Each structure stands twice: as structure tokens, then as C-alpha cells.
Amino acid sequence: DSEAQVSGEEASTKMKQAAAGAGEQSATESYTSGASSVGSGSDDEDGGSRPNPRDTVQRNSKGFSDFRVKKIDQHQFGRKEIELAEQEMGGVMTLRKKAAADQPLAGARILVCIHINAQTAVFIETLVLLGAKLRCCSCNIYSTQNEIAAALAEAGIPIFAWKGEDDQDFWWCIDQCIETENWTANLILDDGGDATNRMSKQFPALFRQLRGIVEESIPGVHRLYQMCSREPGAPSLLPCPAINLCDSVVKPRFDTYYAAREGIIAGLRHTTDVMLAGKYACICGYGNVGKGCAQALSRMCSIVVVTEVDPICALQACMDGFQVRKLDDIIKTIDILVTCTGNKNVVTLKHFERMKSGCIVCNMGHSNTEIDVSVLQDKRLTWERVRNTVDHIIFPDGRRIVLLAEGRLINMSCISFPSVVVSVTSCTEALALIELWLFSKEKEEHEKRVKASGGDFGEKFSDRYKKDVYLLPKKMDEYVASLHLPTYGAHLTELTDDQARYLGVSKAGPFKPHNYKY
């Protein structure tokens, strides 16, 4: 481990030195880092006058040009934010130090379609230090921090992302990461399923060559399960094994619950300056995200009501002290409406027409389909941009609805994200990618031996992953959690041999059965 730690630190230092290699920036240029979570100050000042980044070839200080970002000159500001995030992401940094010398992802070519911010940049650079080659794009048109994308481009990482992409830009950026000269992806890391879906439909031949897919969102996981036919004997449409992080142990309990609990408050205050005490708030959906949002708003003395379709989640909400009502019955009295269901058309025209003036509408679920924004494109309605990611929708009768991030994910579009939470998610993503990549290499090596022996190779291959969707092994979830305990000064109690035998578990874990609910 000590040798790996030295190697990892040296590699990390080299990457930072390369990123800082450009000349000193003029002191006359200013930058407001406080606005970074909603785009750099220059974005607002430009007012859309700058040319589209996809049409502009820029070069970093080393002459590298295989990227498209808003403004490469912002890279120094982005590098400072990345270094700040590293201080809070102890788990990822520990994993980087331990595994860098082994290069477990050597040979992997990963299409990375996730949010682009300071925390995910730490993860992206960790994948590079573990041996992977990457091409990166954003899974959300509003969540990209432009200075962070510039810092990654300065470090020589092909990245195609900027804040405020339109739909054509979004798909163009994904296409640049699927296939270019001398590049085809063999692994996908996806958040939302857009890259996977795009590749399967527009690049089917390349899709069939994939070695593995890692997906972290509810909508993306649903798409993966749809590709796996559940009818007996029917072939799977998946070309390779996929790992569902959304339903694994660590990710939904930390990335969704704890992040939502902090993110909803920060998002509402950052965008609207609203006083939360006494406000009537409706949370649509009481899964992990809904639980975090409801409990956070309740602690701020908001009056919280929940809507649910699942009787189990509804009963949990009741036991937690929240009323469970139908949205149609309470829509006229709501001050704040938050969707976090993962579904579509949760808030529709009939709801908008009955909302009180000043009602704040936002989405904490990944999918932008929860709020039917298309019905607000009516000529009778006036859109008034108040702030970046904040719109007032003015109805003919004078009522104003406050729509945040055009119905997209508020805690990624409007604010920064807790670094330690992203560290937990990033570790699970890294281990899932390593697991699938090493398995594919083992399988490929076994097939070569069989072919070389003329089919008489006696050793059987443990084909533990087929063309299906799997959860992250429990042992890896526990390892991710253990990486983050030193951050809090936590020390685990060790089982005695007698205690381990009594419980029927290994002293090294896993400590709970696969079906245990944390």
C-alpha cells in the first residue's frame, strides 16, 4: 500500500502540474467563484453572445484541442475548485492512492456521461490515474461548471460539455464520446441512460462491442431492465453485463437521501431567497430523495405534505409524521412543490392552472419529465427570466409561477453538491467499472486459451456476469463505506472468532445477508 500511495501521489502531482502549465492569467480578468455552481460570471455577462462552443476549436497550453468547453481560459479557477473538493473526498483519494500502482483500468476506454462539477472532476481524474482512457460529456444541460470543464480540458482529458447546451448540443456532445477516429468506447458510465440509449439506437454495431455498463440513476436503470427480456428463453438486448448502482446499498442511502436532505434547502434558498418557515410544501414521492427533502423542509418549520402511489412508502410518510394527500386536493394551497418520483407528467397543465401566485415548482428527481414543462410553452403565457435557472411563468390572470431549472434537477443545476457524498458515489462507480473491466479481461483471456487449445482447454470459466443487470457486490459496498470512516474519526469494532461463528459471517465481512434492508 505504501508503494501504491507514493505512486498515486506522484501521478496526481503530475496531473496538477500539467493543468497549471499555462501562463499566468492577467490580473485584470476577474472571476466570481461564488457563482460557479450556476455558471461563471462571464456566462451571464455574455448574454448568449459568445459563439457556440461546439463550433469553436480551442487549444490548451500544450496544444491539445480534442475538447469543447465554454472557455479554456477559466481552467485555473477550475483547478482551484477541484483541489478544494479533493480535501473533502477522502474516500476517493484513498482509493486513488491504493490502486494507482496496479492500473486496474489499463486498456479500458470509458464513455463518461455524468454531471460535470468539481467533485466529479476528482473522480474523472482518478479513473485516468487508474489507467483508463476517457471521453466525457454531461448528463444535464445545466449542471456543468464551465471552469471545471476547462480544467479537465487543460489536463488533456477529452471533454465535451458546457452550461446551457441546447438539445442538439447535448446529443452532439454524447456522439463525440461514442466514436471518433482511433476511439470506440468499451465501457459506459452513465447517469440517466442517455448515452446508453443513444449508443444502442444510433451506433448498434459499437453497442454490441461493449464490455460493461454502469448506471447510477433510476430512469437509466429502468431502461437497462427493459433491455433485459424477462420472458423465458428470450434473448437479452444488452450486449454485456451492467451494474445497477441505484439499487445497491451505499449509493441510494448516501447520494440520494443525505444529498437531497441538504440539497433541497440550499437549492431553494440559492435561487429564490425564500423564507421556508411556515411555507406549505408538497413532496411528490417518498423514496430516498423524497424522505430527505421532506425531513429537511420539516426541520425548517415548513408544513410538509407528501403524495405517493406506493402504500408502503405512504405508510412510512405517515409514521414519520407527514400527511399523505392527493396533489389535486391540495394544489391551490401549496407554496413549494417538489417532484422526486422518477416518473413522468407528475405536474401537468391542470395543476399549473390551479396553483396560487408565487408557487415555487422544482424537481429533485433525475428525469426532467416529472414536470410537464411543454404545456407552459403556450403563447398566452409569458416567460420572464429572473435569474440564471429561475423563470417566472406569467398567466393571463396575472398569476406568477416560479419554475426552477426548467424542471430539471435543481440540486445539480442550481447549486454545488456535498463533496463527501459524491466521494461515496464515485468510489462505487470506480469499483463497478473495475469489476466489469477485470471480468471482461478474464473472460477474453479464457477464450484465447480455449481457442489456442483447439477447444480442449479443461479449465472452466466462472461466468459470474452474463448479459443482465446486477447489483454491486455487498463486499464492495462495505469497502466503500470503510474508505470514508477515517474522515469522521470512526473506528470499527471487530468481531471475535466466537461471535463471527455465532452470526455465521466472516470476520472480514460481508456482515449482512444480500436481502438485508439498511
From TrEMBL:
EC class, as a word, reads: hydrolase
The organism's superkingdom is given as: Eukaryota
Region (Disordered) residue ranges read 1-63
Q: Where is the S-adenosyl-L-homocysteine hydrolase NAD binding domain?
A: 256-417
User: Which pathway does UniProt place it in?
Assistant: Amino-acid biosynthesis; L-homocysteine biosynthesis; L-homocysteine from S-adenosyl-L-homocysteine: step 1/1
Its cofactor is: NAD(+)
Q: Which GO terms describe its cellular component?
A: cytosol
Please provide the record's keywords in A-Z order. Answer: Cytoplasm, Hydrolase, NAD, One-carbon metabolism
EC number in record: 3.13.2.1
* SUPFAM superfamilies named in the record: Formate/glycerate dehydrogenase catalytic domain-like, NAD(P)-binding Rossmann-fold domains
What is written in the cofactor note of this entry? Binds 1 NAD(+) per subunit.
Which GO BP annotation is one of this protein's? one-carbon metabolic process
Q: Name one Pfam family in it.
A: AdoHcyase
- Which molecular function terms from Gene Ontology are attached? adenosylhomocysteinase activity
Q: Where are the transmembrane segments?
A: none
Residues binding NAD(+): G287, N288, V289, G290, K291, G292, E308, N411
Q: Please state which protein family the record places this protein in.
A: Belongs to the adenosylhomocysteinase family.
Name the NCBIfam families on file. PRK05476.2-3
Q: What name has this protein been given in UniProt?
A: adenosylhomocysteinase
